Amino acid sequence: MDRNSITGLILISLVLIGFYFINKPSAEQVEAMQHQRDSLERVELLRQQELDAALKQQAEASPVALEAEAEATTVSDSIQLNNQLQARFGQMAPFVEGEATYYTLENEKVRMVLSSKGARIYSVELKEYKTHDGQPLILFDGEANKFGFTFTHNTRIFNTNDLFFEARQENEEQIVFELGTEQGEQLRFKYTLPADEYMARFELQTERLNNLMATPRGSIDLTWYMEMPAFEKGRSSEKRYSGLYYKYHLDEVDWLKGAGDGSEDLRTKVKWIGFKGQFFSSVFIADEAFASANVEVKAEENEQSNFLAYNKAETVIPVDLSTDENIGFSFYFGPNHFFTLNNYDKELELNQLIPLGWGIFGWVNRIAVIPVFNFLEGFIGSYGIIILILTILIKLVLFPLTYKSYMSTAKMKVLKPQIDEINERIPKEKAMERQQATMALYKKAGVNPMGGCLPMLLQMPILIAMFNFFPVSIELRQESFLWATDLSAYDSIFDLPFNIPFYGAHVSLFTLLMAATNMLYTKMNSEMTASANQMPGMKGMMYMMPVMFLFFFNNYASGLSYYYFVSTLITVGQTLLIRRFVDEKKLLKKIQANQKKPVKKSKFAQRLEEMTKQQQQLQKGGKNKKR
User: Fold this and answer.
1) CA torsion, ordered 389, 392, 397, 399, to nearest 10 deg
2) CA–CA gap between residue 78 and residue 354 (Å, rounded)
3) For residues 426 and 441, what is the distance between their CA atoms, to the nearest angstrom?
4) Which of 52, 433, 454, 565 is 20 to 30 A from 259, comparing alpha carbons?
5) Helix, strand, or coil here: 273?
6) 256: domain CATH number?
7) Number of separate domains in the chain
8) Do 463 and 565 share a domain, yes or no?
9) Full domain range(s) for residue 283
10) pLDDT tens digits for 166-191?
């Protein structure tokens, strides 16, 4: 910076300082200005106090006027809101907002809570039953469960699940929900729950709705969604016997298993759709039929969840909104009890909700096992004793087959020395000749080599029928016997601090006893079977079965393990009893006597022998050509 610039800055600073001191107010002027500001503040304070007093006086003197003013503001806002809703939703505007009100229908068995929002069943409780931990048994509950019909109005899509209905309770058994306009357009949902019934009625009623609602294809779409709660002690078993069932119109019942994800597009008419648990079901039944349906199951993977699966059904219901309609349906909310379900219309086949087995296995359960079981139930209070008596009766019926099987095995045992002699005399290379000689021996002795297998095969339908019966028998649910607290779930004498794959985190005593008795029976059979020494590998396989049962049945119903344990124990006792009265020396003499008698060949045996000779000649001819 040069000298001239510095000089200029100094002069400017001196001028500013001089101007400040020349124009600085005196002490009298400062005091006067402060007095003026204080006066203005006092005037403003007095004005504010007067305004507050006036407002207070007005509020005390005319509260009605203030309320009227506030109400006018609220009405104005409400009119504005209604205008907005009217512009957005058209004639459906009065039904899109509101407050849900709840109503109850109940009888001796079922308590249904219904909501004005959606005019739907909000929750269902089965009053006669409890969960495994003693809580009320509620099939479904809450906003997460949906039941609603879809339609359009002014190009907008609506679902009745989201609309608010007016409700009136006709009587203790019936509630009607209405959605209507001043023009007489009405949609009604009528629910009726008769006394002492698991079956409720539902009616969809329409009046002049063709201008208010539109539906595609002359039908209305229904969406039913439910979260399936877990009720039982054995979660794995409960999942195994849960699922989504449906019956085709005038046709069979089919299902999707609840243990995994699955879906099915049902393009033909459907009579009913059921969300099934192990022991309880919710079933929606059409008086006529659903035109089609799409069903879906999603399993809950979290083992700690309160839910087993998530079921969904989308159905198409024929409806003509240009005329007044009354479309009828039914809801079944109840137990999977065979005779309860069987009391309804036979054509509904609701008893198919209980998986008793296909073909002959299901027939054995329906015709024999269930009637006998329920007959005993009328006289005996302990279900453990009922299973014991049922097992004894079954073993008595099967005793002739057991005896025949034992005798066939005993004959094979006494013939073993002669079979060994044939095997030593004829080398392994001549397998056909060895087999012919063995079969000739059996024929002369009057022994059928399949005689031991056939009786066991005839017993299989009953064994498999019982395997299907016990896990789904609601009669055993929460019934205790000895150390088992619930015969429909696994029994546990010791809970493990860890989980063993394919076994579980507990020890079932009935399963241990069943495996032990099977080991004993296997040992007795191996001693009796002549071919056991010839096939040592097969002998090991026989002992593997009881070990596999130990893992397989540990998580199954304790009533099933108890039945197999008692059944095998009785079989062991029958075998020991038969062995005591059968003299193998006398049996051998009888066989030897039969061998001396001339054998008359049947036509079938003659043809078989001729075919065998022809085969041998062909084999010899092939060898000669090679030479």
Assistant:
1) -170
2) 55
3) 14
4) 565
5) strand
6) 2.70.98.90
7) 2
8) yes
9) 98-355
10) 998 778 899 999 998 888 889 999 99
625 pLDDT above the threshold of 60: no
Residue that is last in its domain, among 355, 381, 407: 355
Return the top range by mean pLDDT from 7-11, 33-37, 258-262, 581-585: 258-262
Question: Looking up tokens 């001043």, which residue turns up?
Answer: 182
Burial of 200 (0-12, 13-18, 19+ CB in 10 A): buried
Number of Cβ within 10 Å of residue 445's Cβ equals 20
DSSP 8-state class, residue 599: P
Long-range contacts of 248-253 (CB under 8 A, 24+ apart): 249/289, 253/349, 253/352, 253/353
Of 476, 621, 497, 459, whose CA–CA distance to 561 is shortest?
476
C-alpha span between 108 and 48 (Å, rounded) = 71
pLDDT higher than 70, residue 13? no
In terms of Cα–Cα distance, which of 311, 327, 199 is closest to 246?
311
Does the pLDDT at position 101 exceed 60? yes
Residue type present at position 119: A
Whole-angstrom Cα distance, residue 89 to residue 101?
A: 23
- Model confidence, pTM: 0.76
Asked if pLDDT for residue 66 goes beyond 50, the answer is no
Identify the pLDDT of residue 147. Answer: 95
Residues 384 and 347 in one domain: no
CA angle centred on 282, ends 108 and 334, rounded to 5°: 30
- Amino acid symbol at 533: N
Alpha-carbon Rg for the chain in angstroms: 43
